[in-house]
Amino acid sequence: MANTDGNGYTIGFATVMVFVVGGVLAFLATYLKEPIRQNERFEKQQSILYAMGVHENGDDTGSVNFIPTDKVEEAYETYIKETYVIQGGNIEKSEEAFTIDMKKQSKFSKSERKMPLFVGERDGKKFYVIPMYGKGLWDAIWGYVALDDKLIVQGATFDHKGETPGLGANIKERYFMDDFIGEQIMNGNKYAGITVAKGNNDPKNETKDDNEVDALAGATITGDGVSAMLKSTLKSYIPHIQNLK
Amino acid sequence: MGLLSKKDQKLILDPLADDNPITIQVLGICSALAITAQLKASIVMSISVIFVLGVGNVVISLMRNIIPSKIRIIVQLVVVATLVIIVDQVLKAYAYSLSKELSVFVGLIITNCIIMGRFEAFALGNGPWRSFLDGIGNALGYGVILIIVGFFRELFGSGTLLGFKVLGDPIEKTGLYATGYENNGFMLLSPMALIVVGLIIWVQRSRNKALIEEN
How far is CA B206 from CA B23, B29, B145, in A? Predict the structure, then answer.
C-alpha cells in the first residue's frame, strides 16, 4: 500500500473523489430529471384543482385526498378553461401561466412581477384560482386559493418547505385548509384579506364574514406568514377578477 | 440470529440498549428533538438513517485503507452527503409523496452526529460486514428512541397516533375529552423531547446500575 499520508496522494485522492462523486451525481440528476419534473407538474395541477374543489376528499374531516396522478392531467384539461398572466396592471391570456416560477417572481417588485391566474369552471360555476408564495417560520410557504365571482373563498390549499412538524406544518392539513372555505376577503366594500387569528372566539369557524380563520396552536409565525401572503397576494387580483366576471 | 456469531450479534444488540447512541452516548440529539413531534416523522427518519448508516459504513469500510488520514473527515462528509442526495433524488422521482413527507429530514441526516461518529469510530477500523452490522445496529438504536419519544409526544401533544384520533375529538369533545381532558401543547415543542429523552435515560439507568458512571 502506498503512503497515504503524502501531500501528493492526498491531493490526488481528493481530485479523484470529486470527479467520481460529481460524475455519479450528475448522471443521477440527468437520469431522474424527467420523472421529477413530471411529479412537480402533477403536484401543481393537483393543487390548483384541489383549490377549486376537484379532489377525492370524503365527507369526514380526515385527510387531504388530491385527485390521483394518473387522472390529474385529464382533469386539469377538463376543468381549467383559461389561464392569464398579470403584469404591471395588464392582464393577458397566456399559456405561460402554468410554468411561471412563483419563487423567482417574488423577487421582483410588484409592478414588474408576473402573476398567474387560472380560471376554472365546474358545474357551471366559475373559479378564479390564485397562486401565492410567502414566508413561514423556517422557509417558504405557498398555496392556491380559489375565489368565486363574489370574491368568496371556495377552497384553499397550502404547502410549505420546512415548517415544524406537528405545528406550522399543519397548514397543509385539511382542518386548517377547510376553514377558509366560504370566508370573505372583503369587509363591506373594503378589502380585508383573511387573517389567521389566535383566540378569535370562533374555533369552529362558524362566522364566515369575519375575515378570520382560527390559528394553529404553536404556529404563530407560520400563521402570520399565511395571513401576510394572503393579504398581499389577493389584493392585486381583485380588480382583474372583477373585470373578468 | 443463528447466522451471526456472538460478536456480530453484540454489534446489533448493544446499540439497542446498553450502548444506545442517544441515551448512553448522547449523540444525534439534534434530530431527535426536531422531528419527534409526530410518530410518522420519527419512523420515516429512522428508516432513512438505517439506510444511510448501513450503506455509508460499508462504503467507508471498503475505502478505509486508501483514505488519506488528513482529509478523512471531509471524505466521510462527502460520502454521507452523496448518499443523502441519492436518497433524496430517487425519492423525488419515484416516491414523490413520501419525499414531500420527508422534506427537511433527508437533509438533516447529513448533520446527524451518529453517522459521522460511526464512520470515524468503527468503519475506519473494521471490515465491511461488521461495519454494516454496526451501522444497522446503531441506526436501530437511534430509531427505537425516536419512535418511543415520537409516540409519547404525539399521543399527549396532539391526542393522535400516526394521525388517528385515538383519544377522541378535542373540538367535538368526544372520547377522553368528554371527561375534561386536554392535549398538552407543550409536548409538541422541542424542549419536551429533551425531557422525554431524559426520562428514558433515567428509567434505563435505574434498571441497569452498570450504566451509572462513578465520579
Answer: 13, 21, 17
Q: In terms of Cα–Cα distance, which of B188, B165, B168, B189 is closest to B180? A: B168
Residue B105's SS3 state is: helix
C-alpha–C-alpha distance, residues B192 and B36, integer Å? 10
pLDDT at B1: 47
- Please compute the mean of the pLDDT values over residues A203-213 and round it to a whole number: 79
- The reply to whether residue A218 touches residue B70, judged by beta carbons under 8 angstroms, is no
> CB distance B78–A164 less than 8 Å?
no
Place of cell 448508516: B53
Nearest residue of chain A to residue B67 (CA atoms): A4
The H or E element that residue A147 is part of is strand A140-147
At position B41, the amino acid (one-letter code) is A
Terminal Cα distance for chain B, rounded: 38
Is A116 a residue whose pLDDT tops 60?
yes
With beta carbons under 8 A apart, name residues in chain A contacting B185. 217-218
- For residue A21, the chain B residue with the least C-alpha distance is B82
Length of chain A in residues, anyone?
245
Comparing alpha-carbon positions, the chain B residue that sits nearest to A6 is: B68
Contacts of A218 in chain B (CB under 8 A): 185, 188-189
Does the model's ipTM exceed the 0.85 cut? no
Residue A158 corresponds to which cell in the numbers above? 397550502
φ and ψ at residue B207, rounded to 5 degrees = -85, -25
Neighbour order of strands in the sheet with A80-87: A90-93, A80-87, A114-122, A125-135, A140-147, A153-160
Give the Cα separation of A19 and A33 in Å (integer): 21
Question: What residues pair up with A213 in beta bridges, in sequence order?
Answer: A196
pTM for the model: 0.72
What are the structural domain ranges in chain A? 42-244
* Best CA proximity match to A62, nearest among B97, B175, B169: B169
| Cα–Cα distance for residue pair A70/B52, rounded to 1 Å | 31
Q: What is the average pLDDT score of chain B?
A: 84
Contact B92 A32 (CB under 8 A): yes
